[in-house]
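May I ask for a protein sequence together with how it folds?
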Amino acid sequence: MKQRSGDSCDIQPSCPVRAAAEPVKTAVDAAAEAGLPVALSESDNPAHPLAAEVARLTACLQAEREEHRRIERELRTSQETLQAFMDAITESALLMDAQGWLLAANQTMLARLRLDPRAAIGSSVYTLVPPDVAARRRAYVERVIQTGQPLSFEDERLGRCIENSLYPVFDDRGAVTRLAVLGLDITERRETQAALEENRRRLQTLISNLPGIAYRCRNDPDWSMEFLSEGCQGLTGYTAAELIGNSACSYADLIHPADRQAVWEGVQTGVRHQGPFQLTYRIRTADGGEKWVWEKGQGIFDVAGQLEALEGFITDITERRLAEMRLNQTLAELEQANRALAQANGALEEAKRALEQSLARQAELAVRDPLTGLYNRRDMDRALREELARCARYGQPVGFLILDLDHFKAINDTWGHPAGDQVLIALARLLEKEVRPNDRLIRYGGEEFALIAPFLTPTAGVMLAERIRARVAATPLAFIGPDGQARAVRLTVSLGLACTPTDASTADGLLAQADAALYRAKRRGRNRVEGPVASAGEHEES
């Protein structure tokens, strides 16, 4: 380390005879360092008083020399410890005296200022910076020396922002003799702070323009507010100051009485699960009005899991809620109208089915015989022509059979027409059991019946007719007489058969041939089956 004028490292004497022995010491030290014997003349005699004094002075000087070496060792150790401590500091650190001479500096400071430690230590700190900066630094140092108080200031250096702190070091008399300087690089902190301030500004702008309230409150029955955004008055009619700390009223007072319990339970459920909560409820505004609001919030917990506060957002959903209610009302009305319409449609469908059934019955009655329920003569003409056309497409024959009760007139004459009708009905049921499923049984008129039999050959037709004849002859036909007594009568039938294409190819021709065959059976004694006759035009009363 460089020695400046006025500085001294001399050790002060600890022996009271040091001043008197100084000339002797000088001579003895000079001779000893030169390697020359010390001539004391008569004082060489150990018994001489001067020799004893010299020996005493020599021992004292030796002790002083050892003390000097010990102090130098301690000084070096102290300096090394100080340097190690300063180098351990990650920010800039230096030690200077009151005149600005640099006594010590850590590696961070030297590297930050791009200084050579051999050239920097022992130099004036005011020469390490530009003159204008040096003037400000000198003023800061003088202020610390005068006041004895630490001082901090900031400056820009090599594109970095440095926060410098000056700390006074006092001597035994309380005077500031040295200053410790710590330079903290706060560039990142400044940038972070600037970004934080910008984010805070943006957040404040956002909160101020929200169509609702951002809040922070306690989890108590009053929902004691600690913060409310500017939208508070627009939503509630109260200013934020009137609600914060329950100054004018509590937020709980604003909640509709019918909704308060549900709001409390909803919030507590969210708090227990440490999750968000969403609520829809009504509030009463300062002017006595009522609004629907939607709230979303969450509990804020510390590191120990203790609830600190509730934070969230409240917005006006009155218009949406009223629209939903109107929509629900409309939907309910539509649902009611739909039910009424469904009932009307059901009634219409039922009426339609009844009408269709009625029309079907009417259509059926139009082609059915009202007494026997068999097809009538009107249907026979249509059905015969359709069957002839169908069978002709496939090259198949069609049989046509006419059946007449023998001596039926005697039944009407003896037992009356009601009894005769019963006999006809019984005969119709009997015939239905004897014909094939695809055959069409017809009441031809009076006591006459007809049968349209598709795919019936002449031979099969004769067999079918004979079976019918035999069954009728063998089966009593029951009826109730005019006296109310149940009776039965055995009757016979006569049958006339015609088939296509052998007997005829048209409906009229087939009908004429079967009719002629029927009359032929009657002339030949009744209760028989006959095919086509050779000559037409013969008729006989039944």
In short: The longest strand covers residues 290-301.
